[in-house]
Design goal:
With 355 residues, the protein is mainly alpha-helical. Helix content is 77%, strand content 0%.
C-alpha cells in the first residue's frame, strides 16, 4: 500500500508542479501584454499540436529521461550525483570516436559505440564515488567539478586532434559518422529515433531493478536509512561505486543516443547548451526519484521547452516564458525539500535528538 501511495505521489507531483508553473507563467504573460489562452494554445501546439511536433518533443525528452534515470538511481541510494553533464559529454565523445574509427560493419560500430559510452561515462561517475569512499571527498562537490574537466577536455579533443577539417573548420566538432551507424528513425521524416524506445525500456528496467531485486532493496535501504543498512551488512563504499557507475552509464546512454540518433557527430557545446543534464536532474527531483515518474516529468519538461519555441514563433511572447515556468519548478522543488527538512528537524526535536 505504501509503495502504491509513493508511486502515485511521484506521478502527481510533476503535474502539480507544472500546474503551479503555468499559473505563474500566466502572470508573466499578462505583464508583457500577451494573451494567456493564445500563448498556452501555441505552447500546446508547439509540443503536441501535430504528429511532427509530438515526435520533436519525444526526441528532446529522450536524453532527459536517460539522464534523469541515472540521477534517480544515485538519489535513491542517497548519493548526490550532480555530474551528469560531464558524464553525458564524455559518453557522447567516446561514442562518436568509436563510431568513426573502429573497423567493422555498422551494427558492430553501433554496439561498440554504446559500450564505449556506457563504460567511459560509468567510470567517470564511479571515480567520484571512489574518491568519496576512499578519501572522504564530498560527492556533491567532486561531481560538480568533474563536469568542468569533462566538458573542457571534450572541447579540446574536438578543437584540435579530432577536429573535422574537411569543411570550413569553423566549428569544433568531429567528422560525421557513417550512415550505417545512425540510429533508425521511428517514423519516416520525423526526428524521434530508436533512442526513445531505449529510454522507455530503461525506465521499466530500472523500476524493476529498484523494486524487485536484492541490490535494488539494498540501494533503497542505504538511501532511506544508512545506519540500518550498515547493521544489515550493506557495504556503503562498494554500493556507492556501483550505484555511481550505473548512474553515469545512464548519462552515457543519453550522450550516445544524441550522437547516433540526432547530431551524427560530436559538436562541442551542443549537449551542454541544451541543458539536458539539468533538466534530467529537475525531472528526478520532481518525481521523488521514481523511475516512471521521472520519465513522465521528463516528457513534461521537454514539452515546455519545445512548446516555448512554438510560442516565440507565433506570438509576441518571448521564448523565456518557458524558462520562467521551469524556474517556478525549481522553486517548487526547493520548497518541497525545505518543508521536508523542517519536518525532520521538528521530529528530531520531539525525540530529543535535534541540536
Amino acid at each position: 500500500m505504501d509503495k502504491l501511495k509513493s508511486t502515485l505521489q511521484s506521478l502527481v507531483q510533476p503535474l502539480l508542479a507544472v500546474l503551479v508553473g503555468l499559473l505563474v507563467g500566466a502572470i508573466a504573460i499578462l505583464i508583457v501584454g500577451g494573451d494567456i489562452l493564445e500563448t498556452y494554445r501555441e505552447m500546446w501546439k508547439g509540443a503536441f499540436g501535430s504528429f511532427y511536433f509530438l515526435t520533436n518533443t519525444l526526441a528532446r525528452a529522450t536524453p532527459i529521461i536517460l539522464v534523469g534515470l541515472g540521477v534517480a538511481l544515485a538519489f535513491r541510494a542517497g548519493f548526490f550525483n550532480m555530474g551528469s553533464e560531464g558524464q553525458m559529454v564524455l559518453g557522447a565523445l567516446s561514442a562518436a570516436l568509436t563510431a568513426l574509427y573502429i573497423p567493422g560493419p555498422g551494427w558492430v560500430k553501433i554496439i561498440a559505440a554504446f559500450a564505449a559510452a556506457v563504460v567511459v561515462a560509468g567510470l567517470w561517475s564511479a571515480l567520484a564515488g571512489w574518491l568519496d569512499s576512499k578519501f572522504g571527498m564530498n560527492l556533491l562537490i567532486t561531481t560538480l567539478l568533474l563536469n568542468y574537466i569533462a566538458t573542457l577536455f571534450a572541447g579540446y579533443m574536438v578543437a584540435y586532434p579530432f577536429k573535422d577539417r574537411s569543411g570550413s573548420a569553423a566549428l569544433s566538432q568531429t567528422e560525421m559518422i557513417d550512415a550505417s551507424v545512425m540510429l533508425p528513425k521511428l517514423f519516416q521524416g520525423m526526428t524521434v529515433h530508436v533512442g526513445f524506445i531505449i529510454a522507455i525500456v530503461a525506465t521499466l528496467a530500472l523500476h524493476f531493478f529498484i523494486n524487485s531485486t536484492t541490490k535494488g532493496y539494498e540501494i533503497r535501504m542505504l538511501g532511506g536509512n544508512p545506519l540500518f543498512a550498515s547493521y544489515g551488512g550493506v557495504s556503503r563504499g562498494k554500493l556507492m561505486v556501483m550505484s555511481m557507475f550505473i548512474s553515469g552509464a545512464f548519462a552515457g546512454l543519453a550522450g550516445v543516443s544524441e550522437v547516433l540518433g540526432t547530431q551524427y557527430r560530436f559538436l562541442d557545446g551542443s549537449l551542454t547548451s541544451a541543458n539536458y543534464a539539468w533538466s534530467g536532474i529537475m525531472a528526478t527531483l520532481l518525481a521523488n526519484s521514481n523511475p516512471i515518474g521521472t520519465a513522465i516529468a521528463s516528457l513534461l519538461l521537454a514539452a515546455l521547452q519545445t512548446g516555448g519555441m512554438g510560442v516565440e514563433r507565433n506570438t509576441d511572447v518571448p521564448l523565456e516564458i518557458s524558462s520562467i515556468i521551469q524556474a517556478v519548478l525549481i522553486l517548487f522543488i526547493s520548497a518541497k525539500f525545505t518543508i521536508s527538512f523542517i519536518k525532520r528537524k521538528k521530529a528530531g526535536a520531539k525525540d530529543g535528538s535535534a541540536v
